[in-house]
Amino acid sequence: MTTAARLPAASVLTAADVARTIDRIAHQILEKTHGAHDAVLLGIPTRGVPLAHRLADRVGSFEQVSIPVGTLDVTLYRDDLRLHAVRPLGTTVEPAGGITGKLVILVDDVLYSGRTIRAALDAIKDLGRPRAVQLAVLVDRGHRELPIRADYVGKNLPTAPRQKVRVSLAETDGVDGVHVLGPDEEAK
Amino acid sequence: MIKHLLSAADLERAAAISILDTAEQLDRALAGREVKKLPPLRGRTVVNLFYEDSTRTRTSFELAAKRLSADVVNFSAKGSSVSKGESLKDTALTLEAMDADAVVVRHSYSGAAHRLSEWVRGSVINAGDGTHEHPTQALLDAFTMRRRLRDGVGDLAGLHVAIVGDVLHSRVARSNVLLLATLGASVVLVAPPTLLPVGVESWPVDVSYDPDAALPGCDVVMMLRVQRERMGASFFPSAREYSRRYGLDQTRMSRLPDHAIVMHPGPMNRGMEIAAEVADDPKRSTIVEQVTNGVSVRMAVLYLMLGGAAGVDSGESE
Questions:
Q1: pTM for the model
Q2: Could you point out which of A36, B145, B171, B233 has its C-alpha 20 to 30 Å from the C-alpha of B159?
Q3: Which A positions 151-170 lie with beta carbon below 8 A of chain B?
Q4: In this prediction, does ipTM exceed 0.90?
């Protein structure tokens, strides 16, 4: 964060944009799952967790359906554990009623290489056997390294690998917003 | 994270709390799961090198390593090359040649784990060396206290802990005194003068010879096993007198504050240092819980020592 803080930051989504985007994803979830009756939301820490809670909240306000929300820490399933100093662990909370037989919707803030989602799929396998797994992200910034795609995307954001995408949420950062940090000359 | 865990004094406050937090997360991650296994130590080898008999510590380390998907080799002195006269150093070199990532060692000589750490490249975890230290026991005890009395977060500042009994021969007591001081708890050692070590006045503790005076103000009472196997001479007149004077029976337990817990590292001598009704008390006794917590805490230690890249300082991660 210290180097990123010195880079120029361009605002991509304002707080109002973030709220509208979450509303749209909530509608899309209802549409695509025909009412989200057997859906559960699994937020990936850190910012996937408040996003999952907000989505459940919005879905509940549009139609009278209450989606269980859980938290899935994927640290222990990452493929780069050996490349870094040991990582602190996050919390895993199974949603009420478990995930077996359910439609699990993974929720994360940014989709990038796809490695976090691969780790999440492995972690899910140890928790139970869902009927299906879908993925919702606030920002898809491209540069996939694995054959993974999102079912619900808040914003497609073409970036250069050198740039950073910073998602801020009121719950974790005090304010909502999405920024791109760094020079954009390599962006395509 | 540190390379070796030889003494509870190797852990600074932040490192100790990070172990307890990690144990809490691992415990939560595995709770109620069908597959009680996590993948971070796949392909790593943990050797359990036990020169002394042990049931709970060895099984606990074995289970902890297996739940993190490490490969475990058990090497006990009985029925191995050690009973044929092999020295600790030669055994260490053998293990070295087999490229173990971590060696969990228990030995009857104080300092054995420290010596071993000079001979092997992998991490060494002291699982009890003579009358010296047993750091993972202190960690699981701290974890148990924190869970019961501090809602599983932070340190143990302000907690009053009494450690009662055979302090002289107890590596559990030594490690606990060090770790509890690091975590901010205050400790009183309660024992007959013959069972207190020389130099105890330099430890960060109070000392009392009288359990009836010391216990009523305590949040935690940790009873120690009377270690007959380490006693050459007689340290007290009779088992009966020791039990009357220092054992925890129901009368003594009833004088504890309502929230106070009773701990014992096991194995217990029922009727000697602890009465059966006290050991089985559903509200206060944490003896079975300590065993369960031991697995989580040892998983945390193994993960933090072996889970990341070797030789990289833990900085902030994204």
A1: 0.91
A2: B171
A3: none
A4: no
